[in-house]
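dude i think i finally got it to work??
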Amino acid sequence: MRILLPGRTTEVLRHELAVAKHREIGGVLVGEHLDGETFRIADLSVQRTGGTSQHFMRDPAQHQEFLRQFFERTGYDYERYNYIGEWHSHTVAPALPSSTDCATMEGIVDNPAVGVAFAVLLVARLGPWSGLQLSATAFRSGQLPDPVALAADPDGGAQRFRQVHPRVRRRLIWI
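look at this
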């Protein structure tokens, strides 16, 4: 799977993480299906409450209106524009999913009431000099978590990505 990140998305993340300082924040990700397993982040919600320095708890009620407006704006074209997952920040730990994060995401994809084929977890951390450290992981019911390739969206503003510590199961990038 591959996710394209528009420059405006990374700027929103960078700004929100700077404002939150030492408190974890997060939200939902919505995207545009481009081709096969390639998606572009179309927008994200931001929940500024529910986080501590080492934990974030998403409140689904805070994101319902965001999702309703997104689907209305995209003409309810669910095949092209849809929920693609969650995001949250880490303030102390590296921008990699914790075991709690994985259990939460597995609960989402295993829940028939949610009805998703997959969900991506984007973990973000603000580093020195406002550098943004990101990782993305795809979750599918009955399968192991799978790293997602993150790439700059060529149509969404210039960015420089730098791969750090590439591993078979994990990918981190700095922007």
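The two ends are 20 Å apart (CA to CA).
im so relieved honestly
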